[in-house]
Design a protein that fits this description.
Blueprint lengths: L1 E5 L7 H12 L5 E6 L6 H5 L7 H6 L15 E3 L12 H14 L2 E6 L5 H8 L3 E7 L2 H16 L8 E8 L15 E6 L10 H14 L8 H15 L1
Parallel strand pairs: 1-4, 1-5, 2-3, 2-4, 5-6, 6-7
Helix pairs in contact: 1-7, 4-5
The structure holds adenosine-5'-triphosphate and magnesium ion.
The site of adenosine-5'-triphosphate (ATP) has 15 residues, from α1 and β6.
Length: 238
């Protein structure tokens, strides 16, 4: 299964969520993360990896030679490239790489850069699920709506396979509730004050819930939560 994680806005938490999801999924499955980011991406420095084993060499050469495993992890990655490298890749190159990886892994997660290009479009169209990451601020929400419309108009996105997660939620939701995105918002992750890496315990707990939400696993509410909801209903009736 190919899951592409995307946002038209930078800094919303795509990489953090992608790696946290990869860590959670790799507990039981074979996972490869493809960093489709030429800005350049973060994986090389974040995970201490070799920048030569990147997406461009994986597309144009032997992709197996470009697979790296971050220390202490059970998932593999292919790191992103640099800005001048992107034009070397065509839609078909990316399509082929995604296909090869999906034959070898249970999950291929693609951490996608915000800009649209041939490569990005392949990552959107070849995905079984596209997860939009957004923050509840006016710019992120309006850009997501605009981008969503653009992608749909050009046939670059299948709305039926797309959903959204709201990240860094602080207090009451404001903008996200004011618009109809036309796609389900499957999960909310709070702003985690002391977060400094994807492996943070709280982030991994949310990644587990996000994974369940992505695959439609309904969580049984705790006894305590059911009691509180029951009392609320009684109170409303009176
Ligand atoms: N739920 C959260 N609470 C607090 N901080 C968060 C949360 N999620 C992510 N962050 C922080 O936000 C910053 C940006 O996250 P990240 O690099 O994952 O975003 P990105 O969308 O991949 O950015 P870019 O577009 O630059 O690739 C990081 O410092 C990360 O630790
Ligand atoms: Mg990123």
């Amino acid at each position: 299964m190919v899951i592409t994680i995307f946002s038209p806005k930078g800094g919303v938490g795509k990489t953090t969520l992608t790696l946290a999801l990869a860590k959670v999924l790799s507990e039981k499955s074979r996972v490869c993360v493809l960093e489709c980011d030429f800005s350049p991406g973060d994986f090389v420095s974040l995970l201490d990896l070799d920048k030569e084993k990147n997406i461009v060499n994986a597309c144009l050469g032997d992709y197996k030679a470009c697979i790296q495993r971050p220390q202490g992890e059970k998932f593999d990655v292919i790191v992103g490239g640099f800005p001048d490298m992107q034009e070397n890749l065509k839609y078909a190159d990316m399509e082929k790489l995604i296909k090869s990886l999906s034959n070898e892994y249970d999950y291929v997660l693609i951490d996608l850069q915000p800009q649209i290009s041939e490569v990005t479009v392949a990552a959107l169209l070849k995905a079984d699920k596209v997860l939009f990451v957004m923050e509840d601020d006016i710019s992120a929400v309006s850009r997501t709506v605009g981008m969503f419309e653009y992608l749909r108009l050009h046939g670059f996105l299948d709305a039926g396979r797309t959903c959204a997660v709201v990240n860094k939620v602080r207090g009451k939701k404001k903008y996200i509730t004011a618009v109809d995105l036309g796609i389900p918002v499957i999960y909310h992750i709070p702003y985690l004050r002391k977060l400094n890496e994807y492996k943070d315990k709280k982030m991994l707990k949310h990644a587990r819930n996000l994974k369940d939400a992505l695959f439609g696993v309904k969580k049984e509410k705790s006894l305590w939560r059911r009691l509180v909801n029951g009392f609320k209903r009684v109170k409303q009736k009176n």
